[in-house]
């Protein structure tokens, strides 16, 4: 993707002057390897990667992103990570939120562990009963782009293509109650974004019910806020106890219905307390549709090609139901009330698809500017709106920056900038890229899970997989655009590059 005439000279200067410590890329890849354990699953040896110190399992969207990061070392290793994630796939195609590779470890160190979920993959491994944003198909294409040599293993790629296809199919067959191509999520953990301000009105409504109020919950079950070996207690960075009571309540609701949203006759139930057309899930679903449509030319059957195209156009057309013109963003929709929710960093993932018009992409780029420059925020992209009264700079998804979300948003902005030949959108993509890299650089190689958007301070787990992957990919974008800048010559103001 080229630079464009008319880009801001300041942004090009910032790009030109950005230099990263050479050792950081090795640290990032090293984090993924250090978070790896050798385990035996169903009699076979596997290298499984946990996202970070708090999380003893293979998480659905984490694994797909890890696969992209690993491809910067070896595409083959990236494919292997997708293969491991596929071990958690259920009979009907769901890639789970969590595949527990060591049930004893998980029951001891994580809440809720496999004893609470009581759920199994098609081949009998313990999993959680939910899914996560479908990054799988998107990741498969990325691996092959990053390391085309991985395509030599054609059988393996075809096998993973089929896993990805069946996963997309699961969303359309099991989670599309309105038949519009906008799928529904039934638990905040499924959206990957547990506690953003976005869900507050829904939680408030559920909290008012007798069923919720009568549910006993002892916060001592939580294992994520224990004091770690360095004496740190990160309770201020994690969701509140009140949020955990909500997560547990919603877990019981879906578990009681066999982790399905259909009744015994296969009809969609309408009484799920949390039933949201989540913008993150629908964006990644569409990004994966588009990736798989391209891959299907080589790896798909004619029927798979037809189905992928059908899903892709349906979701694309319906996505406008998630557009809030007043806010200037795509937002999640609460299907209980029919209302759109707050904007979040998840909103910007829609940019990584062919959904937005130039007007919509430009409005979202403008909104990013607004978030960054009006509320004391120094870095892109806050996870909840910084002008909201309940914005919190360090608590999980209530404000902090998740560089992995920044990575997909940056990818989207750069893509939309090129697609519409719009230099302002491209500039915003570069700005998100540079901000994210600067955050990791300031963190001095700690690769924290998330970052305070005002001070840049790292929060949550260290040596985190998501952050390492975002760093690896955004560094490659940095190199690409620096090379483009050099190739265009050091022209005054950078205004004539192309
Ligand atoms: C956690 O345990 O914090 C995760 O966000 C659940 O997926």
Core attributes:
about 500 residues; mainly alpha; Glycosyltransferase; 3-stranded antiparallel sheet; two-stranded antiparallel ribbon; binds (2R)-2,3-dihydroxypropanoic acid
Ordered list of secondary-structure elements with their pairings:
Elements: H1 9-17, H2 23-34, E1 36-41, E2 44-49, E3 58-59, H3 60-71, H4 75-86, E4 98-99, H5 103-109, H6 114-117, E5 119-120, E6 126-127, H7 136-146, H8 154-174, H9 188-191, H10 200-207, H11 210-213, H12 241-256, E7 276-277, H13 279-299, H14 302-318, E8 323-324, E9 329-330, E10 333-334, E11 339-340, H15 358-374, H16 403-419, H17 423-442, E12 450-451, E13 458-459, H18 465-487
Antiparallel strand pairs: 1-2, 3-4, 5-6, 7-10, 8-9, 10-11, 12-13
Helix pairs in contact: 1-17, 2-18, 3-4, 3-7, 3-18, 4-7, 4-8, 7-13, 8-13, 13-14, 15-17, 16-17, 16-18, 17-18
(2R)-2,3-dihydroxypropanoic acid (DGY) binds near residues 97, 189, 194 and 224.
Bound molecules: (2R)-2,3-dihydroxypropanoic acid
Sheet with most strands = 3 strands, antiparallel
Low-confidence stretches: 492-498
Termini, distance in Å?
Answer: 10 Å
CATH class: Mainly Alpha
Q: Which fold name corresponds to the CATH topology?
A: Glycosyltransferase
Radius of gyration: 21 Å
Q: How would you portray this structure in words?
A:
- The chain has 498 residues and is mainly alpha-helical.
- It has one domain: Glycosyltransferase, CATH 1.50.10.
- The protein contains 18 helices and 13 strands.
- It has a three-stranded antiparallel beta sheet. A two-stranded antiparallel ribbon has the order 1-2.
- A hairpin with a 2-residue loop joins strand 1 and strand 2 (44-49).
- Helix 1 packs parallel to helix 17 (423-442) and helix 3 crosses helix 18 (465-487).
- It is globular.
